[in-house]
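User: Just a sanity check before I run the rest of the batch. Below are the structure tokens for the first item. I only need the designed sequence back.
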């Protein structure tokens, strides 16, 4: 057996095993409580000036009847089904929409938020383009010829390769077109690999998606003799792990000038890119020449930023103030480029050789927990400029990831006196404390219930103060106490709470962060990020990207349980003292089970151990103990409660069908002598059968869940 055959069979076995694990994770996630989680809105691409039918796909997507889109020229119209037999009530086709895109909507990637019975979903992309679009069949019966200038939407086939025909004219035209396949524009986890072949066997060029980069083959770079002698040209596409199906989508085009608003790798940015927002403006020095190697010298004076082709290595000769600190920061991997830079600081250069190594700056430290972080591989540190340097230091800037060509993207080296600042980013908190089971869930708040937002912060250039966070624009009956991230912390959970009287509401969330450095007040609107890839066995934990906004849905139904601090929301305590936290447990139908309480965001050297609240218990208490050296300050504490809720699943479907049956029954007397009476009776019988099935489907069932509850403020004096 040949080695390629062995490799292919091994890949197939691996794909089967990974598929089983993926199924296991998916099955586990089905046990999550009723909160919407959208995997895709399919197809996620529409040509401007046209209309396209799209479908919402995911978990807990019942009664999705509206979609919010971040452009007024894109409108989602809910589709309707025919009325039921003998009935005149309109029937909504929940989750199915016709998207109308105005002719003046620019090409680009937009955000769509589906809203339904179980909340406002995590944002999903909708690509708008000016090119014609074709949807590729999952398993075409014959080779499809790729037309130049068309954008194709496909999905990889599990354990298989997809093949396409390319006209020979592509090889002889001037200039020759490019072949591009991208996945990030449509939030796809597919790892696309494509191969250009002659005579269906010999590979003459290949490429794969890496990070945000599309797979790209330049026909211009393929030797003419290979193209001229070929009897035919074909393209093979597959997922590198041989996965496939609906989630593994890709956009494909053959074009001399591919649309940058569809295929550019900079269209989507990881959550870590929040660090690159709102930075102080510096004098810009553009160095766009191809890499001259590590010996290339670029001279700048602080404060400056050097903009250069990503992946380039060089030496920066920096003139700065003797004895003053200097902030050095690279922005490349931070904004999604597949690079791994290192900066080595030297005192001098003699005869082209760097001397007197002072400092090595490697990856930025990771920030965050619970499966979501904002770490990156870019160097960032403070450099001290000693008197011995005469005010000049040399920075050897090297990209350690040399296997990927990213020279068509722009990276930045920032060199300036430190300017203290902070950068926050917010995610909707996961419903579980197990990162392997978490998903890109939406926002669903009930009366007497809570909903959490997880906020992380990266402190930059010596910022050391506390950071206050406040959710603004909430409706009447919904509140969120101001949360504080102390200098010893880099994350906190903002907990939204709804009262018994809160009315149904849907709207965007907004969080404002503020802090002080000396007399300077710093304030920012916190950017949001959404999960674009759920955890998988082969790709690891969830991955997120920046998005325009997140929405919250409030429903007029009560949560099964409310756990809150008794009497006060603010607890004051002196360092070294203890305090017993009294808590009230208000139970409703479905909330009778035990609860395991795990404290979150505790101060350093403070102790509050997890405990269990007995089934049906109405009160509980726990002692918090501080140490004599617990840092003073204001801390925002809450609890991650683990509990089994017993709740019905989408009871509205049963109510609607029961009402339909009752309307038919009310018509029986009018059909007494009608020849249609047997048909009406048959419709009633069919409705009763469906009601029996729905009674079982919607019956209360157990949902093991984690929910944030009991928020309070702890002041350590």
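Assistant: Here's the designed sequence for the first item:
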């Amino acid at each position: 057996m040949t080695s390629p055959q062995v490799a292919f069979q091994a890949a197939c076995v691996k794909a089967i095993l990974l598929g089983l694990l993926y199924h296991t994770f998916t099955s586990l996630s089905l046990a999550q409580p009723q909160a919407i989680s959208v995997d895709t809105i399919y197809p996620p691409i529409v040509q401007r000036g046209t209309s396209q039918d799209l479908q919402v796909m995911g978990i807990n997507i019942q009664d999705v009847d509206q979609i919010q889109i971040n452009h007024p020229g894109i409108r989602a119209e809910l589709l309707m089904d025919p009325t039921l037999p003998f009935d005149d009530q309109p029937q909504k086709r929940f989750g199915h929409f016709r998207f109308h895109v105005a002719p003046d909507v620019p090409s680009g990637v937009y955000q769509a938020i589906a809203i339904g019975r179980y909340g406002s979903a995590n944002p999903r992309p909708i690509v708008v383009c000016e090119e014609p679009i074709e949807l590729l069949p999952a398993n075409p019966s014959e080779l499809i010829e790729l037309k130049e200038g068309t954008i194709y939407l496909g999905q990889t086939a599990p354990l298989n390769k997809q093949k396409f025909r390319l006209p020979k004219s592509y090889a002889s035209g001037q200039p020759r077109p490019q072949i591009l396949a991208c996945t990030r524009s449509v939030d796809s986890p597919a790892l696309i690999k494509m191969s250009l072949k002659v005579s269906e066997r010999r590979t003459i060029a290949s490429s794969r998606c890496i990070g945000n980069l599309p797979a790209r083959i330049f026909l211009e770079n393929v030797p003419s003799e290979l193209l001229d002698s070929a009897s035919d040209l074909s393209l093979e596409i597959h997922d590198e792990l041989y996965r496939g199906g609906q989630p593994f989508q890709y956009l494909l085009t053959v074009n001399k000038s591919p649309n940058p608003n569809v295929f550019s790798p900079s269209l989507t940015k990881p959550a870590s890119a929040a660090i690159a927002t709102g930075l102080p403006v510096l004098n810009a020095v553009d160095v766009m020449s191809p890499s001259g190697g590590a010996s290339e010298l670029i001279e700048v004076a602080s404060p400056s930023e050097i903009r250069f082709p990503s992946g380039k290595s060089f030496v920066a000769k920096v003139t700065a103030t003797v004895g003053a600190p200097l902030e050095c920061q690279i922005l490349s991997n931070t904004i999604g480029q597949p690079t791994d830079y290192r900066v080595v600081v030297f005192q001098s250069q003699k005869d082209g050789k760097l001397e007197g190594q002072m400092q090595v700056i490697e990856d930025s430290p990771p920030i965050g927990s619970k499966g979501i972080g904002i770490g990156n591989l870019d160097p960032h540190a403070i450099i001290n400029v000693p008197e011995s340097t005469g005010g000049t230091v040399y920075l050897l800037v090297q990209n350690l990831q040399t296997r990927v060509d990213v020279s068509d993207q722009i990276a930045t080296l920032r060199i300036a006196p430190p300017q203290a600042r902070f950068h926050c980013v917010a995610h909707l908190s996961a419903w579980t404390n197990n990162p392997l089971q978490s998903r890109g869930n939406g926002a669903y708040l009930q009366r007497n219930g809570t909903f959490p937002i997880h906020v992380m912060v990266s402190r930059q250039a010596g910022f050391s103060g506390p950071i206050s966070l406040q959710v603004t624009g909430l409706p009447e009956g919904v509140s969120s106490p101001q949360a504080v991230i102390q200098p010893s912390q880099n994350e906190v959970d903002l907990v939204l709470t709804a009262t018994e009287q809160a009315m149904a509401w849907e709207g965007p969330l907004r969080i404002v962060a503020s802090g002080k450095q000396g007399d300077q007040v710093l304030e920012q609107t916190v950017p949001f990020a959404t999960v674009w890839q759920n955890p998988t066995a082969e790709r690891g934990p969830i991955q997120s990207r920046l998005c325009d906004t997140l929405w919250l849905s409030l429903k007029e139904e009560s949560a099964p349980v409310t756990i809150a601090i008794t009497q006060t929301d603010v607890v004051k305590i002196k360092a070294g003292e203890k305090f017993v936290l009294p808590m009230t447990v208000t139970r409703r139908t479905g909330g009778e089970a035990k609860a395991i309480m795990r404290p979150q965001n505790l101060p350093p050297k403070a102790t509050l151990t997890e405990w269990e609240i007995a089934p049906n218990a109405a009160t509980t208490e726990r002692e918090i103990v501080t140490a004599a050296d617990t840092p003073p300050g204001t801390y925002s504490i809450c609890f991650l409660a683990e509990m089994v809720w017993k709740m019905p699943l989408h009871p509205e479907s049963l109510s609607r069908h029961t009402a339909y049956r009752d309307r038919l029954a009310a018509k029986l007397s009018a059909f007494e002598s009608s020849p249609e009476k047997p048909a009406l009776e048959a419709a009633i019988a069919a409705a009763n059968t469906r009601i029996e099935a729905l009674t079982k489907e919607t019956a209360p069932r157990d949902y093991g869940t984690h929910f944030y509850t009991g928020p309070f403020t702890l002041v350590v004096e």
